[in-house]
Amino acid sequence: MDEPDDPREPGDVPVVVNPEILRADAAFGRDRARFGEHDRSAADRAHTIRVAVAAGAQPEDLAQPGHIFPLRARDGGVLVRGGQTEGVVDLARMCGARPAGVICEIMNDDGTMARMPQLEQFAAKHDLKICTIADIIAWRRQNERLVEPIQMDVPMPTRFGTFTAHLFRATVDGKEHMALTVGMPGPSIDGPRVAVDEPVTVRVHSECLTGDVFHSLRCDCGPQLDKALEILGKEPRGVLVYMRQEGRGIGLENKLKAYRLQDQGLDTVEANQALGFAPDLREYGLGAQILRYLGVRKMRLLTNNPKKIAGLGGYGLELVDQVPLFTAPNPVNTKYLRTKRDKLGHMLESLEEPRTGE
């Protein structure tokens, strides 16, 4: 069962974060209080759900713990996190219904999870309609915008060339995100820029204070940012979006805690998990909206990270090419880079251990 944020919940329903569900907040299980704490039939659970989502429902209406596990959708829905949790709540809201829904997994007869071909057969048999997360993203993208321009078209000379700076604010959390452009359209009458027909070279870079500003050798963020700016500065059209999601989304304090754990032998993924986080909490939906606002429709994406590629079609962005962004490893960050390659799927070249002094 998915539920939106509710002002009556804090202090009443303990919330736990399960790293495996990637930022969908999970609450302890609930059962209908007045009919016993061990009702497990489908009818019992359906009644529990109806009680939980009813207007005016109170925590005392439900026994805890139980067998129904609520998830709380992120503010901003699928435009912030493209998950099933956000999808079902957004779909209910779009239909004018109470923003809550039920998620269930459809299984094949052999116990495996049904995929789209099997789901299409199931839908045809039972006269059901199918809607994907990409469909919901596409509809909301066409009808809503979760970023707003604050300061636009400010000249920004750098050692890599002269860019134009644009500052945006996310309406869902108030965070500010920066974009630097080269050769992109200027202001238009209604706000968003005129769409560019040809592919634009794009880099979406997540904030890394330690690497980008202080030149930490623990990561490759600073060198990647410099290389991306060097490439974009030579392009006829280019965009760099600088997203405020420090430490792969866990924040600066937790990133420094993770560094301590890495010094004790954990790798970067294990350290995040030891702190109770998923390996990578970064989200790119707002970055995609910024790109569309600036006129990007087709892009050559500078990245080694396959996660940045996933789901871009739902935002109306066509990926025409992925351009690797390789930087030389150093003796400090080789293990980090190998972990990104082996556990996070980053496409990196052979990573030999550099010899000291080279």
Structure description:
- With 358 residues, the protein is α/β, with parallel strands linked by helices.
- It folds into two domains: 100 residues, Alpha-Beta Complex (DHBP synthase), CATH 3.90.870; 163 residues, Rossmann fold, CATH 3.40.50.
- It is built from ten helices and 13 strands.
- The strands form three sheets. Strands 7-8-9-11-10-12-13 form a seven-stranded mixed β-sheet. The chain has a four-stranded mixed β-sheet with strand order 1-6-3-2, covered by helices on one side.
Write the layout of secondary structure elements.
Layout (H helix, E strand, L loop, with lengths): L1 E2 L11 E2 L8 E3 L2 E3 L9 H12 L8 E7 L2 E2 L11 H11 L21 H11 L6 H11 L3 E12 L2 E10 L5 E7 L17 E7 L2 H5 L7 H13 L4 E6 L8 H12 L4 H7 L10 H9 L4 E5 L15 E6 L10 H11 L14
Parallel strand pairs: 1-6, 10-11, 10-12, 12-13
Antiparallel strand pairs: 2-3, 3-6, 4-5, 7-8, 8-9, 9-11
Helix pairs in contact: 7-8
End-to-end CA span: 56 Å
Shape designation: globular
Radius of gyration in whole Å, from Cα? 23 Å
Question: What would you call the structural class?
Answer: alpha/beta
Task: Give the beta-strand count.
Answer: 13
How much helix is in the residues? 25-40%
CATH fold topology of the largest domain: Rossmann fold
CATH superfamily of the largest domain: GTP cyclohydrolase II
Order of helices and strands: EEEEHEEHHHEEEEHHEHHHEEH
Strand order of the largest sheet: 7-8-9-11-10-12-13
Major sheet attributes: 7 strands, mixed
Return residue spans where pLDDT drops below 50 for at least 5 consecutive residues.
1-28
